[in-house]
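Repro:
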Amino acid sequence: MMKVLTVVGARPQFIKASVVSPRLRHGADEVLVHTGQHYDVSMSDVFFSELGMPQPDYHLNVGSASHGEQTARMLSGLEPIFMREAPDVVLLYGDTNSTLAGALVAAKLTIPVAHVEAGLRSFNRAMPEETNRIVTDHVASRLYCPTPGAIRQLEREGIPGALLTGDVMDELVLNTPWRRDLLSSLQLEPRQYYLVTIHRQENTDDPGRLKNLVEGLSALPGHIVWPIHPRTAKRLEEDHLLGHLGSSVRLLDPVGYQDMITLEAHAQGVLTDSGGVQREAAALGVPVFVLRNETEWTDLVDSGRAVLVGTDPGQILDAVRMAPMTPYTLHLDRRPSEIIVEDLHQHYE
């Protein structure tokens, strides 16, 4: 029986693994390793319980640290596990430090790597995620691309043979029921609020950019709902920006996956720097405003389902006033998880 070692560590990876792992476990032995990159209950445990994921076989508990220290802890923690388990293939998702660490350890031990969400590029080398995804793609044996553009990008980099699977996250979005009581419990009306998420280092660690975002969000018409990442909350407090938030901005603790999908689906628009939230909201047909100067999900911008607005307050307000954007209805011809698992069996059984 094929043995697959899956490495996860952050919210987007829990979500994607929750789709692939059940299908994988029907005919393969999966070992699940949680690095602990996201360790807060609201950012980790809730996703395992809510999405019905099996508990990890190993938990590294690396916690928060600088990129170098965090990745080093992962490398030293993953290597003995990889050696002990001797998997046929290591399965990785996305572009986090957990992804990079898993790719490097597997490559050093000559274990094949399969990368879900391969080929995406923001072309901004200042982003840690960009380095992570490039390195992972270049050591991977099997590359699973969510879009045709991702396949073309890998070919430009001299990496042929990638497989178009579609986006695993879309598969879950279409099958997640909304929490009908959530809006009433928060005293929200459908299409009468904007949903915000901000967590990327480029936005949270630059006081000027974060102040611009606070000003831009506070100037938006109507109610603003902001489930706030723990790191972002800390930065707002350290930079003395909490008092700059307008009265229309409502901060929430981080929410679980079903609650987040419910909030996205009923929002007038979603403003985010998250790659995952971009995809989720676009799949639900909700206007997406990307609080960055570039995105690895270029297909969303090219198709008119998202617009890059950066962090300038005036540009944010102007973009929102011009919504809605291109209407969109998501349809999957075939489940991405099915394509991925079939390919793994074909190559590593």
